[in-house]
Amino acid sequence: MTLTNESGRSVYRLLQHRVTIALAWTGLALIALVITPMILETTTPIFQLFWLIVPLISLIRYRDADRVGFRIPDIGTGLRATITAGIAYAVLLILFEPWSGVYDRLLVLALEGPDPTFAWLVRFDGLGRWAGLALFSGFVTLYSEELFFRGWLLQALNRRTQPKVAVVGQAIVFTVFQSIPIFFFEPIQAVLYLLVYAFGLGVILGVASQGTQSIWPGLAVATVANFVLTAILL
């Protein structure tokens, strides 16, 4: 009984530690998302502020990191999910990007703003610009997307419906939030952006998150893909 109680206390301490990390990371990301646009003189990403605030409220209210997908899967499961999602997304990009130029157009729009994720490429030179892009996207902007859609929203839908429906549901909501750029695309680009680059990506990352109950595979894939595509297209 003593060993069982000690084990239970150890698990509880680990859970509390994970909640603290999630609260600190999300809070710091929110602060960075407010301050960075002022420093770099960029547009303010209102949606991404919302995507951080909602999970942060959940963390404060429930003190449960699993409700926002802040779970660390075992190494084997996490790697398989990350690699599978990465290959699936790479296949989509190889099939569509060379002739459609959707991501290329999206990058042009992001640099014109500039969007705070890509402003590092405009405001700085050398390795600093790439380091800023990688760190800010991975720790702030793309983190906000994964935390909200593949974390908080996916888990909220899981409590109310079937896993496959939850994956599709969060992908649909993700697509709706991502739809603003279609007004700056050619018609065929707009359709491809919604179906492939938004909904398709949402499903791929949603499946990875559903299989691991974690945002980390999706965040890894999104961050690497964003960095590699940007480096290739610029």
TrEMBL record:
One of its GO terms (biological process) is CAAX-box protein maturation. Keywords: Membrane, Transmembrane, Transmembrane helix. It holds the Pfam family Rce1-like. It comes from the Archaea. GO terms for molecular function: endopeptidase activity. InterPro entries: Rce1/LyrA-like_dom. It comes from Haloferax sulfurifontis ATCC BAA-897. Residues 132-227 form the CAAX prenyl protease 2/Lysostaphin resistance protein A-like domain. This is CAAX prenyl protease 2/Lysostaphin resistance protein A-like domain-containing protein. The chain crosses the membrane at residues 21-40, 46-63, 75-96, 127-144, 165-184, 190-208, 215-233. The lineage of its organism: Archaea, Methanobacteriati, Methanobacteriota, Stenosarchaea group, Halobacteria.
